[in-house]
Amino acid sequence: MSDTTVGRAELDAARLLLARMGISPADLVEAASDCPPAPTFAEYVPVVSAAVSDGTRRAYGSYWKRVLEHWGQRRLDEPSPSEIEQLAEYAKTHVVARRNARGGRSAAEHLIAALRCLYKRAVADGYLNAADNPALKVAKPRRLPSTRRAVADSRLAEINAVAASTGDDPALDSLLLRLHTETACRRGGALALRPVDLDPDQCLILLREKGDTVRWQPVSPTLMRHLQQHAEERQAVGAGQLLRYRNGQPITYRRYDHLWARIGQHLPWVYVQQISTHWLRHTTLTWVERNFGYAVARAYAGHTDSGSDTGTTSTYVRASLQEVAAALAALTNESHPLA
């Protein structure tokens, strides 16, 4: 008996069984797609916003606001993939113009990601079937390579010198730069640091960063001493935020913005290249990789073996302009200012 004959026999048996039960194939299709009425975006965005982490809310909040402006009274199951593409294009063309903007690609990417987060929750809550998720049917713009790279030692010294000699709180700014340079931590990890996260006996600090990752990071005795002194002088105790202004108020991301704006005023190349705290992470991880290998650099960065982190360290340890210039000088036997 052929496979086709067997297949037809099974279908006939299934039809006979359904007929005896009083169920039609259409009933099965309707039951499979039987979802409660989908809420409007205005009703559902606050639900999702309250359920996600603070980091996700910061990343997607402005894009959910944009969705509410355009689709607030529409139900989740109404927009089509084409309409999502149109909204992403709108976000791309109406992005706030900044010196480091790259044609609005990031805005379009984040809008689609914000909608994917929203619809993923809607599927989990039973308002949509996974196959009906329109956000998954829209491709994100291809992400361009980052322009960040390691900062040369001499340039890093200039940055530290300006931070230590200008501004209203040089001690705080110098400590921030030292912390990020030594640990390669992200801004979120520094802002989440607490006095209880310091282990002075072993010179370790507990970093809590994006993705709810937690790791112990070695630091120098000098940095540990300054962190303890900072906490004591600025009344940071227990589980409260460690990094604070002189008046005892915890610092925020805005301190970093003001710091780099000031450094850029004194060092034009910082302003031109849009140097930021994340460049220090590139600088440290590149040095670690060159001297201690990729595995140590990955651990230093706090990257894991998960699918999302695999190979991530490579984005931080690319060849610097100085190394490329040195290769050019060796090739041409001519000196280069960067080599």
Characterise the protein shown here.
By secondary structure, this protein is mainly alpha-helical. 56% of the residues lie in helices and 4% in strands. The protein is built from 15 helices and 3 strands. A 3-stranded antiparallel sheet has the order 1-2-3. Strand 1 and strand 2 (204-209) form a beta hairpin. Helix 4 packs across helix 6 (105-124) and helix 8 runs parallel beside helix 13. The longest helix has 20 residues, at 105-124. The termini are far apart.
Task: For the largest sheet, list the strands in their spatial order.
Answer: 1-2-3
* Beginning-to-end CA distance, first to last residue: 77 Å
H/E series? HHHHHHHHHEEEHHHHHH
The amount of beta strand, in percent, is under 5%
Write down the overall mean pLDDT.
85
Tally of DSSP β-strands: 3
Radius of gyration in whole Å, from Cα? 27 Å
Number of helices: 15
